[in-house]
Amino acid sequence: MIRIDSVTKRYPDGTVAVDRLSLDIPDRAITVFVGPSGCGKTTTLRMINRMIEPSEGTILIDGKDVLKEPVNTLRRSMGYVIQNAGLFQHRTIIDNIATVPRLLGWDKGRARDRARELMGRVGLDPSLAKRYPYQLSGGQQQRVGVARALAADPPVLLMDEPFSAVDPIVRKGLQDELLRIQEELGKTIVFVTHDIDEAVKIGTKVAVMRTGGRLAQFAPPAELLTDPADAFVEDFLGADRGIRRLSFFPAAGLPLLTTPVVAVDATAEQIAARTTPDVPYLLVTGLDGRPLGWGEPRNLTAGRIDPTRLLAHGRPFEHATDSLRAALDCAVLSPTGWAVAVGADGRVTGVVAQHTIAEAIRSAHAARPDTEKAVR
Ligand SMILES: Nc1ncnc2c1ncn2[C@@H]1O[C@H](COP(=O)(O)OP(=O)(O)OP(=O)(O)O)[C@@H](O)[C@H]1O
Predict the structure, then answer these.
(1) For every residue of 160-227, which 3-state class applies, written as one string?
(2) What fold characterizes domain 2-247?
(3) What would the pLDDT profile of 259-280 be if each residue is shown by its tens digit?
(4) In this structure, is the dihedral angle defined by the CA atoms of residues 106, 107, 110 and 115, taken in order, positive or negative?
(5) Whole-number Å distance between alpha carbons of 236 and 248
(6) Confidence of residue 373 (pLDDT cuts 50, 70, 90)
């Protein structure tokens, strides 16, 4: 949808911020530009909506040269979100969000209705509508920034380090929200960050740039983690590349064992029947099917197992929706080395040993990861 064709940006002082950059930004997906400070990410983003004009090359949107579009029409077809949200401090939240619809000539009532709808979409409580930006937290302001950019329903959203100024927990929430919005609305999003973890998490495709404004690699995140193009990309991806790559393999294929699982009211016969030599512990569940903890069979009192005397079961993973990385993490943190799998309702669906996960990892490495998106 957006084609960047041999684009160079040379600033008047001679700095080459972007050097013969060519890539196609796919429609209805999130494309992330990532790279060290000063590598030309912001310059590239701003050339798309012509806040900066390229020195050479062309940028085409749906086949049309952006330099031939009236700049106002172009900008209104693109939402723009920046770090610290850049809200109008003297306007209420609802009026901030309604800005572009009002510019487009919508009447006040319709623009405010739209703004209220968007507040819901980005997870803002309607009671915040009449507040001013300074009365909101950083994360809430950032949500307002996203809502404002979406207000006129533009097909393209440009986001320049939108979540960099908030703490890691709020940031994770904003990333999840963006992924949800993208799934619902199918926007074409171009996102700039210097954080490779953020790029790998939210990008459908990731453009890694190197200093001097050159493209080092343009690939889906799983492919970056599997086959970094060179030492620069490998270094930029950082440690734990192998472990992080496991996020792209579903845990759903792991074979689960249900034998070593007993309910808290299990009889002596049930305990005996479920005890096998290769499984030294049994997982005890409540009558609701949720995990209570691990116990050695000889320590379990038939009919009334005492949950307070069990070993912690650790955080379980969701078999149908989590990744191999999540399953491995559960097994590593489990006191027994066995991971507990649950369904969406939190009820135990089985258990799996570390060595079984290791085998699954070995076969996963032999196969290609799902390059479309991470299993979250
Ligand atoms: N107006 C300007 N005049 C001269 N040089 C500029 C100008 N704006 C940016 N630059 C330079 O162009 C290069 C690319 O800048 P740009 O802001 O695009 O990088 P970036 O990758 O977004 O960096 P950061 O992650 O630090 O925001 C840098 O070397 C920067 O100093």
Answers:
(1) ECCCCCCCHHHHHHHHHHHHHHHHHHCCEEEEEECCHHHHHHHCCEEEEEECCCEEEEEECHHHHHHC
(2) Rossmann fold (3.40.50)
(3) 999 999 999 999 999 998 888 8
(4) positive
(5) 19
(6) low
Report how far ligand 1's centroid is from the alpha carbon of 214 (Å).
13
Nearest atom of ligand 1 to the alpha carbon of 209: 21
- Give the pLDDT score at 350: 96
| Residue of 11, 47, 194, 195 with the most ligand 1 atoms within 8 Å of its CB, for mutation | 11
Cα(2) to centroid(ligand 1), Å: 22
The closest residue, in CA terms, to atom 31 on ligand 1 is 38
Q: How far apart are CA 202 and CA 217, in angstroms?
A: 17
- What is the 43 CA–ligand 1 centroid distance (Å)? 7
Annotate 295-331 with b (16+ C-beta within 10 A) or e (fewer).
bebeebeeeebeeeebeebbebbbbeebbbbbbbbbb
pTM given for the model: 0.84
Residues present in the chain in total = 376
How many Å is the Cα radius of gyration of the chain? 26
Q: E strands, the chain, where?
A: 2-10, 16-25, 30-34, 56-61, 64-65, 78-82, 156-160, 188-193, 205-210, 214-219, 261-263, 282-285, 291-295, 317-318, 338-342, 348-353
Q: Kindly give the distance from the C-alpha atom of residue 120 to the centroid of ligand 1, in angstroms, as a whole number.
A: 36
Joined together, the tokens standing for residue 204 give: 């459908």
Tell me the C-alpha distance between 34 and 194, whole Å: 5
Domain ranges of the chain: 2-247, 251-366
Mutate to test the pocket of ligand 1, among 15, 19, 164 (most ligand atoms within 8 A of CB): 15
Token pair recorded at residue 364:
């996963």
The interface predicted TM-score (ipTM) is: 0.96
Contact 62, 238 (CB under 8 A): no
Average pLDDT value over all residues in the chain: 91
Per the CB < 8 A criterion, the answer to whether 327 and 251 are in contact is yes
Which of ligand 1's atoms lies nearest the C-alpha of 15? 5
Q: Domain 251-366's class?
A: alpha beta
